[in-house]
Write a structure and sequence with these properties.
Shape: rod-shaped
Radius of gyration: 47 Å
Region (Disordered): 670-707
Structural class: mainly alpha
Protein name: Vacuolar protein 14 C-terminal Fig4-binding domain-containing protein
HEAT repeats: 92-127
InterPro entries: ARM-like, ARM-type_fold, HEAT_type_2, Vac14, VAC14_Fig4p-bd
Keywords: Membrane, Repeat
Largest sheet: none
Length: 707
C-alpha cells in the first residue's frame, strides 16, 4: 500500500473518487501515465501495488464514487500495461466482474465499460475468465437499466469476436453453463443465449453439433415463446442444426430422440410440428442407431396422426409409413414388446385415425414376427377384445383381421371365440350393435363352418340360458341373411343327403335348441320338414309368449326373401312336400290373425296350387288325409321330410330325429323353469314394494262414519 501511495499523488487519488466524471477521467489518465513509466522500468511490484490499491480501496469501497473511480482506474492500468497486462489480469479482472452485479446501475455501467476496454487490450488472454464473464453478461442482458443493457450488448459483441478468433476457448467447460441457463424464461436472456449458440456454431473449430443434445430441449422450449422474434431465432438455429445433422456422418441420435419424443406432445402447435419434422428426418437418417428408440418414436407419431393441424398430420403419417417400412430384427435390439405396448395404449385414443394406425402396427408385427408377438398375447388380447366395441366400423374390422390372424392356431381360435362370447354376454349392446359385423367378418376370415361349430359348442353348455337364447337367435339371423354364409346354407340344405351337411345340422342343433324359432328355421333350411312339424307340435302354452311371436314374425318375413326361394318353389309341388305345408300351416295357426305376419303367410299359402303339373289330378290335402299317402310319381314315394326316396336308399337315416326332439324338449323345459323362477322373483320383488308396505300397516275391522 505504501509503495502505491508513494507512486500515486494524493491529489490524483482524491480526484479519482470525485463525483464528477471529468475529474475521475483525468485522474485515470494520470494513473495511466504513471503505470506506463513503471512498465517501461519493469517495476511490476509497484504496478501490482497500484492495482491492488485501486481494487481494495476503490472498487470494493462502500462509496459508489470510489467504486466508479476504481473501475476507470483499472481500465486505465490495463491500457497502460498493454502487452504486459496479461500477467496482471488475475488482479484486474475479478474486481471488475464483481462490480457487474453492483446495486448501483451506474457502477454496473462503468464496470461494463471498464471490462470492454480491458478486453480490447488483452483479447485472447481474456478467455480464462470467459465463463464468469458469460454468466455476468447473461444476467446483464436482462438488466432493468437500459443503459446497462446497451453497454452489456457492446461488451457481448466484443467477447464474441474474441472467442471466435481464439484457440483457447473450451467448449467442454462452456456447455454445462449454457445448459444450466437454457430453461430461463426471460426473453432478453433467451435472445442472448440463442445469439451465443448461433455464433459458436458458426466457428469451424467448435463442434456445437456434438453437444446439441445438451441444449436442444432449451431451443425447443423457445419455440413457444410469446415473442415472435425469439421463436424465429430459435427456429433458425434449429433449422441450421438439422441441416448439419443431414450432412454429418456421425450424430448421436439417441439422446436427441428422447427430447424430440417429449416435444412432439407439446401443447404448442409450432413446437409439435418442428419436433415431428425432426423425427421424420431422424427416421430417414438414423438407421440402426434408432432401433432401440422405435417404440418411443411410435409413441410420439401415433397421436400426431390425429393432430388438429394438417401439416403435423401429413408429416406424422409419412414418418409412420417410413418407420413401418423398416424391417428391424429383434436380434438388433428391436423391442417388439415395447412396440406392442405403445400400440395397445394408443387403442384407447379418442381419435379413430390413431387407433387404426395402432392396429396396423400390430398386424404388421404379426405378419413379420408372429412367434414373438404371440409371446405377448396375454398383454394385448383383452385390449383387442375391448376394441371390438369400438364406435368405428373400420377399427372393428381391423381388430377382427388381427384376431383371425392370431386364431390360425387352434388354441388361440378357441380362446378367441370363448372371449368373444364372454364379451357378448357381459355387453348385450355389443351383440346388438356389432354382433352381425363381427360374426360375418370372422366367418370370412376363419371359415364359416369352423366359426359356427365352435360357437354352437360353447353355447350348448352356456349357463346363462337367457343370453344363450339371444345369442342363438342372433346367429340364426346371420346364418339366414348374410351373403358370407351362403356356402354354409347350401351345405345345410343337403343335410338329408350329405354326410357333411348332416354333421353340421346335428352340431348346430344342440345349441339352436335354446330358441324354438331358431330350430324351426334350421329345419326349414335343412329341409327336415317333418321334424320341424314335430317341433311345432311339441310347443306348449308357456312357449307362445311375446318374444316367441316377435321371432316368429321375423321368420315369416324371412320366408319371403331370396334365401328361401327354394322353399317357396317347393310349394309348386304340394304333393311332394306335404310336411312343408303342414309346417307352414302350423306356423300360421300360432300367429294372431290380425298380425301382419299372419296375412303375409296366409297370402302365400293361398297361392299353393291344388293340382300337380303332370296332368293327373291331385287329391285335395284335407285334414283327414294321411300325409304318407302314395302319389302319382313313377318310381318315387313321399318320405317323412318331404324329400324323394330314390333307389339308393334312405340317406338321412343317420339323423336320430326322435333323439333330437327330446334334446329340444329338455332344453325348452330348462328355459320354462328359468322363466318361472324369474316370475317368482318378480313377484317377490313386487310384494316387497309399496303394496307390501301397505299390507304391513295396522288394519281396522270397522270404521266409524260421520256422526
Amino acid at each position: 500500500m505504501a509503495d502505491a501511495l508513494s507512486v500515486i499523488p494524493a491529489s490524483v487519488l482524491r480526484n479519482l473518487s470525485d463525483k464528477l466524471y471529468e475529474k475521475r477521467k483525468n485522474a485515470a489518465l494520470e494513473i495511466e501515465g504513471i503505470l506506463k513509466q513503471l512498465a517501461s522500468a519493469g517495476d511490476h511490484d509497484k504496478i501490482s501495488a497500484v492495482i491492488n490499491l485501486l481494487a481494495k480501496e476503490f472498487t470494493y469501497s462502500a462509496l459508489s464514487n470510489h467504486r466508479k473511480g476504481g473501475l476507470i482506474g483499472l481500465a486505465a492500468a490495463t491500457v497502460a500495461l498493454s502487452s504486459e497486462a496479461a500477467q496482471h489480469l488475475e488482479q484486474i479482472v475479478p474486481p471488475v466482474l464483481n462490480s457487474l452485479s453492483d446495486q448501483d446501475s451506474r457502477v454496473r455501467y462503468y464496470a461494463c465499460e471498464a471490462l470492454y476496454n480491458i478486453a480490447k487490450i488483452v483479447r485472447g488472454d481474456f478467455i480464462i475468465f470467459f465463463n464468469q464473464i458469460f454468466d455476468a453478461l447473461c444476467k446483464l442482458s436482462a438488466d432493468s437499466d437500459p443503459n446497462v443493457q446497451s453497454a452489456a450488448h457492446l461488451l457481448d459483441r466484443l467477447v464474441k469476436d474474441i472467442v471466435t478468433e481464439s484457440d483457447q476457448f473450451s467448449i467442454e467447460e462452456f456447455i454445462p453453463l449454457l445448459r444450466e441457463r437454457m430453461n430461463v424464461l426471460n426473453p432478453y436472456v433467451r435472445q442472448f443465449l440463442v445469439g451465443w449458440i448461433t455464433v459458436l456454431d458458426s466457428v469451424p473449430d467448435i463442434d456445437m453439433l456434438g453437444f446439441l443434445p445438451d441444449f436442444l430441449d432449451g431451443l425447443f422450449n423457445m419455440l413457444s415463446d410469446s415473442s415472435h422474434e425469439i421463436r424465429q431465432q430459435a427456429d433458425s438455429a434449429l433449422s441450421e442444426f438439422l441441416q448439419e445433422i443431414k450432412n454429418s456422418p456421425s450424430v448421436d441420435y439417441g439422446r436427441m430422440t428422447e427430447i424430440l419424443v417429449q416435444r412432439a406432445a407439446s401443447p404448442d402447435e409450432f413446437t409439435r410440428l418442428t419436433a415431428i419434422t425432426w423425427i421424420n428426418e431422424f427416421v430417414k437418417l438414423g438407421g440402426d442407431q434408432l432401433v432401440p428408440y422405435y417404440a418411443d418414436i411410435l409413441g410420439a407419431i401415433l397421436p400426431c396422426i390425429s393432430d388438429k393441424e394438417e401439416k403435423i398430420r401429413v408429416v406424422a403419417r409419412e414418418t409412420n409409413e417410413e418407420l413401418r417400412s423398416i424391417k428391424a430384427d429383434p436380434a438388433e435390439g428391436f423391442d417388439i414388446g415395447a412396440i406392442l405396448s405403445i400400440a395397445r395404449r394408443q387403442l384407447d385414443s379418442e381419435w379413430e385415425a390413431t387407433r387404426i394406425e395402432a392396429l396396423h402396427w400390430i398386424s404388421t408385427l404379426l405378419d413379420r414376427h408372429r412367434a414373438e408377438v404371440l409371446c405377448f398375447l396375454n398383454d394385448i388380447f383383452d385390449t383387442l377384445l375391448k376394441a371390438l366395441s369400438d364406435s368405428s366400423d373400420e377399427v372393428v374390422l381391423l381388430v377382427l383381421d388381427i384376431h383371425a390372424c392370431i386364431a390360425q392356431d387352434p388354441p388361440h381360435f378357441r380362446q378367441l371365440v370363448v372371449f368373444l362370447v364372454h364379451n357378448f354376454r357381459v355387453d348385450h349392446s355389443l351383440l346388438e350393435r356389432r354382433g352381425a359385423l363381427i360374426i360375418r367378418r370372422l366367418c370370412v376370415l376363419l371359415d364359416a363352418e369352423r366359426v359356427y361349430r365352435e360357437l354352437s359348442t360353447i353355447l350348448e353348455g352356456e349357463a346363462d340360458l337367457d343370453f344363450a337364447c339371444i345369442m342363438v337367435q342372433a346367429l340364426n339371423l346371420i346364418l339366414l341373411t348374410s351373403s358370407e354364409l351362403s356356402e354354409l346354407r347350401e351345405l345345410l340344405k343337403q343335410s338329408l343327403g350329405n354326410a357333411a351337411g348332416k354333421d353340421l345340422f346335428v352340431s348346430l342343433y344342440a345349441s339352436w335348441c335354446h330358441s324354438p324359432m331358431a330350430i324351426i328355421s334350421l329345419c326349414l333350411l335343412a329341409q327336415t320338414y317333418q321334424h320341424a312339424s314335430s317341433v311345432i307340435q311339441s310347443l306348449v302354452e308357456e312357449d307362445i309368449n311375446v318374444k316367441f311371436l316377435v321371432q316368429l314374425d321375423k321368420m315369416i318375413r324371412l320366408l319371403e326373401t331370396p334365401v328361401f326361394t327354394y322353399l317357396r318353389l317347393q310349394l309348386l309341388e304340394p304333393g311332394r312336400h306335404l310336411w312343408l305345408l303342414k309346417v307352414l300351416y302350423g306356423l300360421l295357426m300360432l300367429l294372431p290373425q290380425q298380425s301382419a305376419a299372419f296375412k303375409i303367410l296366409r297370402t302365400r299359402l293361398k297361392t299353393v296350387p291344388l293340382y300337380s303339373f303332370n296332368g293327373d289330378k291331385l287329391k285335395r290335402a284335407s285334414s283327414g288325409n294321411s300325409y304318407n299317402q302314395n302319389l302319382h310319381y313313377s318310381g318315387s314315394q313321399i318320405i317323412e321330410d318331404g324329400g324323394i326316396n330314390q333307389d339308393n336308399g334312405n340317406l338321412h337315416k343317420g339323423i336320430n330325429f326322435a333323439s333330437r326332439l327330446q334334446q329340444f324338449q329338455q332344453m325348452q323345459q330348462q328355459h320354462r323353469m328359468l322363466e318361472k323362477s324369474h316370475a317368482q322373483a318378480r313377484k317377490c320383488t313386487k310384494k316387497e314394494g309399496p303394496e307390501a308396505v301397505e299390507s304391513q300397516r295396522p288394519s281396522t275391522s270397522s270404521r266409524r262414519g260421520p256422526g
